[in-house]
Write a structure and sequence with these properties.
The chain has helices at residues 9-32, 39-46, 50-56, 60-65, 69-79, 86-98, 103-118, 120-145, 152-174, 180-192. It is mostly helical.
């Protein structure tokens, strides 16, 4: 069986439409700014109707905040060998998901991160999303180590891991050719070594 499991035709078509809408939105935001870009323009560029846009994204904010990689990372994390530590499993999952991505897709992810940092309403929504992602990550880590996700040690470890990933995203967004995967891998290696300075 291949990882991740191959989705059906309908799911692939939906994913392709969602990705096209997001890609065109990010291109327009980059060219003319977030505030100046309308849903009508995004729909037109993606060659879909506005009603189709709203079937995939409830708001213009959602088109930026949608992270298609979280479910892939969670599945890849679960697929890592049971003997691996949570950090080793996350490093393996990151490589499984991001190492084969085309440069254009990585550049879109970088742009998405830059928009979230630059636009106040996106930053506020992203913080709420971050809390949800942190809880989901704590559940994955707890499952791997056989503890409760409410165990404070699990929460603290999850917070440290998420902090490393956030630091990598921030650093990569500031560099002209910032390599997310390399920075995340470097940060996770530092975490695994006890965060020495």
């Amino acid at each position: 069986m291949s990882w991740p499991p191959e989705p059906g035709l309908r799911e692939r078509k939906k994913a392709k439409t969602r990705a096209a809408i997001q890609a065109e939105a990010l291109r327009l935001f980059s060219e003319q700014g977030y505030a100046a870009t309308t849903v009508e323009q995004i729909a037109g560029a993606a060659e879909v109707s506005e009603s189709t846009f709203f079937r995939y994204f409830g708001t213009k904010e959602d088109v930026v905040l949608h992270d298609r990689f979280d479910p892939l990372l969670f599945a890849a994390f679960r697929a890592q060998p049971a003997a691996q530590t949570p950090v080793q499993a996350l490093r393996g999952a990151m490589h499984a998901v991001f190492a084969q991505l085309p440069a254009a897709e990585l550049e879109r992810e970088k742009l998405r991160g830059q928009l979230v940092l630059a636009v106040p309403e996106l930053r506020a929504r992203a913080l709420a999303q971050f809390a949800d992602t942190m809880q989901a990550t704590a559940e994955l880590i707890a499952e791997r180590v056989g503890r409760s996700p409410d165990d404070f040690a699990v929460r603290a470890f999850t917070g440290a891991m998420m902090g490393v990933l956030l630091a990598a995203v921030l650093a990569a967004s500031e560099l002209p050719a910032g390599d997310y995967l390399a920075l995340m891998d470097e940060g996770l290696a530092q975490l695994e070594a006890g965060l020495p300075l």
